[in-house]
Amino acid sequence: DAGVIQSPRHEVTEMGQEVTLRCKPISGHDYLFWYRQTMMRGLELLIYFNNNVPIDDSGMPEDRFSAKMPNASFSTLKIQPSEPRDSAVYFCASSQGQVIDANYGYTFGSGTRLTVV
Amino acid sequence: AQSVTQLDSQVPVFEEAPVELRCNYSSSVSVYLFWYVQYPNQGLQLLLKYLSGSTLVKGINGFEAEFNKSQTSFHLRKPSVHISDTAEYFCAVSPLYSGAGSYQLTFGKGTKLSVIP
Description:
The structure holds two protein chains of two kinds.
Chain A: E1 5-7, E2 10-13, E3 19-24, E4 31-38, E5 42-50, E6 53-56, E7 65-71, E8 74-79, E9 88-95, E10 107-108, E11 112-116
Parallel strand pairs in A: 2-11
Antiparallel strand pairs in A: 1-3, 3-8, 4-5, 4-9, 5-6, 7-8, 9-10, 9-11
Chain B: E1 2-5, E2 10-14, E3 19-21, E4 24-27, E5 31-38, E6 44-50, E7 56-58, E8 64-68, E9 73-78, E10 87-95, E11 106-107, E12 111-116
């Protein structure tokens, strides 16, 4: 298995531009999570999906952020318009089953490092 | 709601010396506990987890952690570290119930372990 695949690995964009981050979860995983990592705030959960349906988006910072999961193998996180304070590493993670499952655990992608100038 | 406190942001240690990375949590419900490791420019990898049973949990790469419910702690230990253990380590919790929010991991801010030759 290739694991959770994120693209691009690095993105540099100008303030005001639209940015789209992409994620391919592990086949068969029915949960997908988007996290943001910054020095100041650490890892923050932005949104998560179960069977392609958004379950909790309370961590999405503001309306400039949106996430979709059109099918079980693909998700996007879009920022429009982008601002310098959005600069961070964005991680996608997927998991299968319930927390009580002995095999439970997130699998993280390698992240997208976003720089907004 | 849950919160995780990692008491040390940075821990330098000499090669082959023992190390302990501290983690305390706060929660109004019982929790599952996890340790993740992040190597430079990579995503997070599951190191070990406590779901139930023995409070001493063994993980990959010779790490182990002990769950102490009375002290609400889940400290990570390794008796002899290697250069390759240099990474950032994250403690995380998830609530022990099903339903909304049960799949969310709350992370600590991380501890950077630097192994000195």
